[in-house]
Structure formats: C-alpha cells, structure tokens
C-alpha cells in the first residue's frame, strides 16, 4: 500500500502572472494513473521542492486529467523558488488533504462568497463549480477586496463571472494610487456587506482572507441573523505533515489540516488563538 506521505512528481505545464507577487501554476501529474479522486474546492495539496521545503497550497483550479492549478504568493523560501520555476520543471505533490467548502450543503440555497487578497484563490473553484452547475444554486454574490487594484488576482475571470446568471461580483480596494482608474468601491471588504441582497434564512456564506477580515465579516453577518452553522471560514496555519500526525496546525483540539481548513463558525467558536 502506498504511504499517504509519498510525493508524486508533477510537471509545471503553465505559469500565469496574476500580480506583482502572485502566480498561478498549472501542474500535471507525471503518471496519469496517479491522479486521485478528491480534488474538491477548498482542499489543499502539499508541494515540495528539494532543498527549499514543503508547504500547503489550496487548489485554485480543478482541470481534470491529472491537472490542477494553485495560485501562490511569493513570501519566502519555497514560494520564492516557485516564483523562478520554468515550464517543464518538476515538483513533488502529496494530497489533496483536508475538508473543503460545503458545496453540496449549499445546493438550492443562495451563496455569499467573501474574499480578501489571495483568499479568493480557494474560492475560485467554487465559483467555477457553480458556473458549471448553475441550476443547483440560488442567487450568488461575490465580494472581493484587495489592498490596491494592482493587488487583485483573477481579473481576467471577472468578465466571464459577471455573465453567470443571477451572479453579482462586487470589488473593493483599501486605496487607489493616483495613476490608477478605479470604478468600484474603496474601503475594506466587510463594508460591502451592507448592500448584499441575500437573506440569512436561505444563504450559505463562504469566506477566506486575513483572519481579521473574516472576524468582521462573521460578526457582521451573525449580528444580521445569519446562522453560525451556515457561515464557513477557511483557516491558515503552519503545517508540516498535513495528516493530523505532527500537531503543528492544532487550534485547541482541532487539526486545521484534517478537520479543516474549512470550518463552520459554530465549530470554531471559543477556540483559543483565533481572532474570529
Ligand atoms: C491550508 C493552507 C492553504 C494555503 N493555500 C495557499 C495558497 O493557495 N496560496 C498561497 O500563496 N499560500 C497558501 N498558503 C500559505 C502558504 O502555505 C505559505 O505562504 C507558505 O508556507 C510559505 O512558504 P515559504 O517557504 O515560501 O515561506 P517561509 O520561508 O516559510 O517564510 C518566509 C517568511 O514569510 C512569512 N510567511 C510565511 N507564510 C506567509 C503567509 N501566508 N503570508 C505572509 N507571510 C508569510 C514567514 O513568517 C516568514 O517571515 C496556505 C496555507 C495553508 C495552511
Ligand atoms: S499539519 Fe501536522 S497535524 Fe496538521
């Protein structure tokens, strides 16, 4: 039997620059038969490069045929090396791991997606899933914020998303440099919540971004009557094993790698070291 820790070689098929520090990488497993089931939106893979370490990254596109996308911000050792990768290079991949977004529970309900910064990456496959299965979801609203217009990612997808039936995309930035034209909102993401059309009774909320942003989003929605079991957040914690073995990612008794990274707010309430 194969070890769950075994790395599988995957080749870089395409690289796309999203903004100054973020790129989307399309990876394809070398051995076609090695493509496993379970590439669900919200789950993550561990990517390893010899000599540079290993880290978790969310799936940002699910392409089938042994291919997936991940969108990575350059912050340190491994992500710095990934930033220099050329098409054709190999990385090691294990996973996918964790529990993703509740896309089945959200069926036949309205969906509110709230994302900040690179937090839109694990939510892109949710939007694409809804696009492919439009009849199974109600009204969809996406609120997305970044520091400046130049920090936004997936801007090439926005026009297509806007054409999805009964779908609203609202954008905001913290600030707009003088030279940049910007016709959307200015201000932090939670400010966009005041204009959403969805109602608490029949809506599933999916949010990912800086913890402090998610704190204000969750508190504002709970105050408006949204149910804590219908509000889901994706958490980021330092990970080593990804498989509930090392304890690095633990918050209270929860393993973010195994029990999350997606949790309903009701599962997290009262856990230590969370700003939620
Ligand atoms: C479940 C999960 C999913 C994730 N998905 C993604 C994803 O889709 N895309 C993505 O880009 N990242 C994602 N991350 C974060 C990613 O794992 C880290 O950015 C990565 O570990 C950094 O590795 P490194 O070796 O480049 O940085 P290191 O060399 O380990 O760190 C260098 C410096 O960067 C700082 N740093 C590390 N991580 C971050 C961070 N996230 N933000 C700001 N500073 C940081 C460190 O504190 C340190 O100062 C995810 C994390 C988790 C837990
Ligand atoms: S990363 Fe090892 S227990 Fe979660």
Structure description:
The protein is α/β, with parallel strands linked by helices. It is 15% helix and 33% strand. It contains six helices and 16 strands. β12, α4 and β13 form a beta-alpha-beta unit. The longest helix is centred in the last third of the chain and has 13 residues, at 211-223. The protein is globular, with a radius of gyration of 18 Å. The protein starts with 7 loop residues before the first strand and ends in an 8-residue tail after the last helix. The chain binds flavin-adenine dinucleotide and FE2/S2 (inorganic) cluster.
Q: State the low-pLDDT regions, or none.
A: none
Shape estimate:
globular
Q: How would you sum up the major sheet? A: 7 strands, antiparallel
How many β-strand stretches?
Answer: 16
Mean pLDDT: 95
Tell me the distance between the termini: 40 Å
Number of H- or I-type helical stretches: 6
Percentage of residues in helical conformation: 10-25%
Secondary-structure class: alpha/beta
Strand content: 25-35%
* Ligand roster: flavin-adenine dinucleotide, FE2/S2 (inorganic) cluster
Spatial ordering of strands, largest sheet = 4-3-7-1-2-6-5
Cα-based radius of gyration, to the nearest Å? 18 Å
What is the element string, with H for helices and E for strands? EEEEEEHEEHEHEEEHEEEHEH
């Amino acid at each position: 039997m194969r070890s769950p820790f075994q790395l599988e070689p995957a080749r870089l098929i395409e690289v796309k620059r999203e903004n100054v520090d973020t790129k989307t990488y399309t990876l394809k497993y070398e051995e076609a038969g090695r493509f496993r089931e379970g590439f669900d939106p919200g789950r993550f893979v561990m990517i390893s490069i010899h000599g540079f370490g290993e880290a978790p990254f969310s799936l940002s596109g699910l392409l089938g045929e042994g291919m997936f996308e991940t969108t990575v911000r350059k912050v340190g050792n491994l992500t710095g090396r990934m930033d220099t990768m050329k098409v054709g290079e190999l990385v090691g991949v294990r996973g996918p791991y964790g529990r993703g977004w509740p896309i089945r529970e959200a069926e036949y309900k309205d969906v509110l997606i709230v994302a900040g910064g690179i937090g839109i990456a694990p939510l892109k496959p949710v939007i694409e899933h809804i696009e492919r299965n439009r009849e199974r979801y109600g009204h969809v609203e996406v609120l997305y914020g970044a520091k400046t217009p130049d920090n936004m990612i997936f801007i090439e997808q926005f026009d297509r998303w806007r054409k999805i039936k009964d779908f609203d995309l609202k954008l905001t930035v913290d600030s707009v440099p003088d030279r940049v034209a910007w016709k959307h909102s200015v201000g932090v993401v939670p400010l966009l919540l005041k204009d959403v059309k969805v109602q608490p009774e029949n809506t599933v909320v999916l949010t990912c971004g800086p913890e402090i942003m998610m704190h204000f989003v969750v508190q504002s929605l709970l105050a408006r009557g949204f149910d804590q079991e219908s509000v889901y957040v994706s958490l980021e914690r330092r990970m080593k094993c990804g498989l509930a073995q090392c304890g690095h990612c633990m918050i209270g008794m929860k393993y973010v790698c195994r029990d999350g990274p997606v949790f309903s707010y009701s599962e997290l309430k009262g856990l230590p070291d969370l700003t939620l």
